């Protein structure tokens, strides 16, 4: 192993086949543009620095403190990612991985899943092979697959698992596209001979795709219908509906892959539920502008750790920090926001403060007319157009309100004024929480976290289907769903009579 050593002034560079070692004997400093990639590089660079005795100059905790992180996990995660990329700076910063070896796997996978949309292919492939690969990278390597090899694999699989007339049409399409009709001539005839009609489940119409049927079930559940009612409308058993409801393995990923954009402003709140009589919480992040949910999940509590986990997942999914966060005054939530988004402006909901101030005024047992006058005054103050006008009005309230109410203004409004200056509300989250309550209630008790999460995902899907056109990708499965048409094709409206007659008898 040959080693080259070069010295110039106070800098020493030594290289061999395995390592590059730099020794700097003078105080140095450098400046870089403030970008995400540069921040990651600096964190890793600081961790690489060694003292003369070979010990690390900076611990993870020290680096975290330098960057004003609440704990060292962020830095630790970056270092672990650096290790996973073979200590290659370029691969680490660009998240590039040499996946050329995956091309044979892709060819085999594509032949087996040729009818799936590309986004579904990507999700299934990375899960099946436990490989980290972005959708863009997946599409890149798909373009490098051997078309002729793929053609032959597809022919083989189609004849092994003939899917009816679809086999014939796919073979013909491949033959025409690749200009090799001779290869398929005999296979086309065999496929016609082997044609097998698919089994049709009792009460289900064959014209409807299975996935659309699953989506319809999720939509109806998200609308507040229970499984028994849906079974009656579809003219199938309740167990069939339950299977359809659980059939899509990773519905959140399907939803997230369909979201193309968001405003950059978010509102976050939680909804209390009980699972087997044990308190749990559905934490949801909603787009402050469009009012559409961006992420939702079930958590065992509302501690800082739960909020931090939720926000870190959100950050990992959307790849950038929000421009504004709006929430209630939960201290745990505030701590979670500071841990994940320390530099993002955070505004508290003015409605919560007004409601609490009203409660303090009511406890003063004032004459009805005077109490009403104070409350109107509070509302007018928060509705003022300018920040300075609102702040001036808040200080005026201290002088005119009864002592308990005035003390609340000082301790809970003036004290937190930087987080209230924009006079915003978390109404988007509050409205969505009411929908969660509607979907979660009437289920005769939630039996598991999985059931609660599936209910939350059904509601999430329904919201995006109904009014998600502003943020969905045009070619996504969710955006292309025509629920009205699916309902016309699938719902057995004759069974509505049974539904209403049953409810009428029970009422009588």
Description of the molecule:
The chain is of the alpha/beta class and 508 residues long. The protein has 5 domains: 1-28, no CATH class; 31-94; 100-193, no CATH class; 207-341 and 424-508, no CATH class; 350-419, no CATH class. Helix content is 56%, strand content 10%. It contains 25 helices and 8 strands. The protein has helices at 36-48, 60-66, 73-84, 89-94, 103-112, 118-129, 135-142, 147-160, 165-178, 181-193, 210-222, 227-234, 238-247, 251-258, 304-318, 331-340, 350-362, 368-382, 387-400, 403-414, 427-440, 449-467, 477-480, 483-490, 495-507, and strands spanning 4-8, 11-15, 20-24, 265-275, 278-287, 293-299, 324-327, 346-348. The strands form 2 sheets. Strands 6-5-4-7-8 form a 5-stranded mixed beta sheet, sandwiched between helices. Strands 1-2-3 form a 3-stranded antiparallel beta sheet, with no helix packed on it. The chain starts with a strand and ends with a helix.
What topology does this entry show?
Blueprint: E1 4-8, E2 11-15, E3 20-24, H1 36-48, H2 60-66, H3 73-84, H4 89-94, H5 103-112, H6 118-129, H7 135-142, H8 147-160, H9 165-178, H10 181-193, H11 210-222, H12 227-234, H13 238-247, H14 251-258, E4 265-275, E5 278-287, E6 293-299, H15 304-318, E7 324-327, H16 331-340, E8 346-348, H17 350-362, H18 368-382, H19 387-400, H20 403-414, H21 427-440, H22 449-467, H23 477-480, H24 483-490, H25 495-507
Parallel strand pairs: 4-7, 7-8
Antiparallel strand pairs: 1-2, 2-3, 4-5, 5-6
């Amino acid at each position: 192993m040959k080693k080259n050593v070069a010295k110039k002034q106070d800098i020493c560079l030594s290289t061999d086949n395995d390592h590059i070692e730099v020794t700097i004997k003078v105080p140095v400093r450098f400046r870089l543009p403030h970008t995400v990639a540069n921040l990651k590089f600096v964190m890793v660079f600081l961790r690489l620095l060694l003292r003369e005795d070979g010990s690390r100059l900076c611990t993870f905790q020290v680096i975290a403190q330098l960057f004003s992180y609440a704990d060292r996990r962020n830095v630790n995660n970056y270092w672990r990612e650096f290790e996973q990329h073979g200590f290659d700076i370029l691969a680490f910063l660009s998240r590039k991985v040499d996946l050329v070896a995956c091309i044979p796997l892709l060819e085999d996978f594509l032949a087996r899943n040729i009818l799936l949309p590309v986004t579904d292919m990507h999700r299934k492939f990375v899960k099946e092979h436990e490989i980290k690969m972005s959708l863009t990278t997946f599409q890149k390597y798909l373009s490098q697959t051997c078309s002729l090899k793929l053609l032959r694999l597809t022919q083989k699989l189609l004849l092994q698992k003939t899917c009816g007339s679809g086999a014939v049409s796919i073979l013909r399409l491949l033959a025409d596209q690749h200009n090799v009709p001779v290869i398929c001539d005999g296979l086309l005839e065999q496929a016609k001979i082997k044609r097998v009609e698919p089994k049709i489940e009792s009460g289900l119409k064959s014209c409807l795709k299975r996935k659309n049927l699953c989506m319809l079930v999720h939509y109806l559940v998200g609308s507040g219908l229970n499984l028994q009612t849906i079974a009656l409308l579809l003219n199938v058993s309740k167990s069939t509906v339950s299977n359809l409801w659980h059939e899509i393995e990773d519905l959140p990923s399907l939803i997230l892959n369909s979201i193309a954009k968001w405003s950059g402003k978010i509102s976050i709140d939680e909804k209390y539920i009980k699972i087997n009589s044990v308190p749990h919480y559905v934490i949801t992040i909603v787009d402050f502008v469009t009012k559409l949910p961006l992420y939702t999940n079930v958590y065992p509590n509302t501690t800082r750790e739960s909020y931090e986990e939720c926000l870190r997942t959100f950050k990992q999914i959307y790849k950038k920090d929000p421009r504004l966060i709006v929430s209630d005054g939960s201290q745990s939530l505030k701590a979670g926001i500071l841990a994940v988004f320390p530099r993002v402006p955070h505004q508290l909901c003015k409605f919560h403060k007004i409601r609490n101030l009203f409660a303090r005024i009511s406890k003063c047992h004032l004459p009805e007319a005077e109490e009403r006058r104070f409350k109107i005054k509070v509302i007018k103050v928060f509705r003022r157009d300018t920040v300075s006008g609102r702040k001036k009005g808040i200080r005026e309230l201290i002088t005119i309100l009864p002592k308990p109410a005035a003390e609340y203004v000082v301790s809970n409004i003036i004290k937190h004024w930087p987080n209230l200056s924009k006079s915003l509300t978390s109404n988007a989250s509050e409205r969505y929480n009411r929908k969660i309550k509607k979907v979660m209630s009437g289920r005769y008790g939630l039996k598991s976290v999985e059931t609660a999460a599936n209910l939350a995902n059904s509601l999430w899907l329904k919201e995006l289907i109904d009014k998600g056109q502003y943020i969905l990708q045009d070619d996504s499965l969710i955006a292309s769903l025509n629920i009205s048409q699916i309902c016309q094709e699938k719902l057995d409206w004759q069974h509505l009579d049974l539904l209403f007659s049953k409810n009428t008898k029970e009422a009588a």
